[in-house]
Amino acid sequence: MWKPYLNGFKIYLQLERSLSENSIEAYLHDVEKLIQYLAIENINLAPDQIKLAHLRKFIEYLNQLGLEANSQARIISGIKAFYKYLLMEDEIKQSPAELLEGPKLSRKLPDVLEVTEIDAMVAQIDLTKSEGVRNKAIVETMFSCGLRVSETTNLKISNISFDEMYVKVTGKGNKERLVPISGSALNIIKLYQDAVRNAQKVKPGCNDILFLNRNGGQLSRVMIFYILKDLARAAGITKNISPHTLRHSFATSLVEAGADLRAVQQMLGHESITTTEIYTHLDREYLRDVVTQFHPRSNGKMSK
Fold first, then answer.
1. Is residue 107, in this structure, part of any structural domain at all?
2. Among the four residues 44, 111, 137, 236, which has the most C-beta atoms within 10 Å?
3. Boundaries of domain holding 72
4. Are residues 158 and 241 both part of a single domain?
């Protein structure tokens, strides 16, 4: 029911606004993100039936995904332009986006790292040291999969599928989900296992835990925090970095590249947003296609 409105909006941007193809695509993507959200929430409404409350919930959703303020502002601008067009065409009498603003956040959103900044952090790692190989595997895994720090420390070797390029993650409430993982992340994990982990004496109860400390025990959440802080400092990055920064960077890089919101939400394992049953069982091939198409690390192939 939205397609005719989108087609008209596109023609308006081309002929009356004389925008570039890239700008037109950006505006259309903004509206498509709203459409994706409505589908996730099972809200079956036409554009002229949307209220301000729906749009505010949509922006809250983007906030919970971890989208930074500038990106939220960009999407709000696109939504406002779409409804301004509908108003001009007399499709609506009043724009629900007229009073739409960014969410009033009780706390500042975490900083998001650009891919170049993540590369700069990785470049600081000394791969001649055993902990360096492990640390690179940690950074690449967290950014490739959008893992929480606890999901990273608890990641099991038996839950990594090198052939199918997936990891099974146990998230909040012991709920499991499958997340695609890049070939580059799998390659460094394999190197870490072969060159470092297999040579360690593993403490009892940690035989299946992937990332170990130098004593053969499970890494702590605090240790990963310090690893990332030290790498950021060495790379000259002044942003406030935490393990959650990589998770937000994962989500932001996918959403800003145009990935389907449902797929991003599924891979993050979000529980704070009510979704319909149909979206909790997305096809694994579909999730992998999303990562392959939109994630900046997706060109990493698994070496045999």
1. no
2. 137
3. 3-88
4. yes
